Amino acid sequence: MAGPMEQFAIKVLHPIKAGGYDLSFTNSSLWMAIALAGVAVFLFVGTAKPQLVPGRWQAAVEYVYDFVRKMLDENVGPEGRRFAPLIFSIFIFVLACNLLGLIPWVGSFTPTSHVAVTLGLAIIVFVTVCIVGFARHGFHFFSLFWPHGSGVILGSFVFVIEVLSFLSRPFTLAIRLFANMTAGHVLLKVFGTFVVALGSFGALPYVFGVVPLAVNVALTALEVLIAVVQAYVFALLASLYLNDAINLH
Amino acid sequence: MFFALADDRQNDDLDRRIAEAKAKIDRPVTAGEGAAESRGWAVGIEFVGTVLVSAALGYFIDRFAGTKPWVMIALLVFGFIAGVYRAQTTSAQFDADDTTK
Predict the structure, then answer these.
(1) Which listed site, A165, A181, A208, B21, has its alpha carbon 20 to 30 Å from A130?
(2) Which of B52, B98, B99 has the CB atom closest to A67's CB atom?
(3) Nearest CA in chain B to A66
(4) Of the partner residues B38, B49, B54, the one whose CB lies closest to the CB of residue A226
(5) Is residue B84, in this structure, part of any structural domain at all?
(6) Is residue B52 part of a domain?
(7) CA distances from A29 to A35, A36, A109, A112, A246 (A)
(8) Range of the domain at B71
(9) pTM of the model
């Protein structure tokens, strides 16, 4: 019986060494590639023959894109639309990774259950926010940390707090996604272990084994919901951070 | 005066507002409410993460400046304040976003 943490083990599928770095193709890379391929199929097939009155598949693609664009419109304003490709890519990649990791039996792996992946995505957002902020406002970007019209003492207090909260953003963004994915998968695995342990218990295996199995079914539904919500939260927070850089609140 | 009042009533959108409020109260439970738990966790992580990042930052400043442990203690306190602030702003931002409503 595999332990609950074994599902997160990175397995090297094809070792690659480049300049002293280990760039091996792992199961994590494989499932990121599968996620990308899945997203590509979803989007290309959906937009292959665009029609004025969309079919089911095209409507699904348009709905997902409109969802992200609407989120940017509401939280950033018209300026935010040029970042729709970035936020949309992050959103749909995280969504595909989260959802594909939930498929049982095919040995699926959730890349977003590793800090390396989520922190990488969060740093992309963070660096983009910094570049956009400095490109649009120059050193005036630092006024983001300074409250309008405050004195020197209170102002410097708030300055420290704002800088700390700004610097912690990529980490909280990464940890949130990673923690949600890891916790959910561990929970599923633990209840899966209960099914086996109680199923082999005494004279009435099916009576006892059925209870954790029912819990696992309900948990799987909850995990699908969490997979979608976490992708949404990641994209929403990324667009809120972009809003700070563009409009300097 | 009377006519003005009558006019006001005609333009009044009270009926519409009552209908909207009723629709809000009578609506069925949505998936968005299941998502509320997720958002709650998101806010909690915002607080914990800010404190941890601030403490780590203080630790490294201490290590390079040789002021152990004062910067870390100071940033831990500021990190607590910043964490509460971030948790509050994040939950307010979640409330303000109605993409999913």
Answers:
(1) A181
(2) B99
(3) B99
(4) B38
(5) yes
(6) yes
(7) 10, 10, 10, 11, 34
(8) 2-96
(9) 0.81
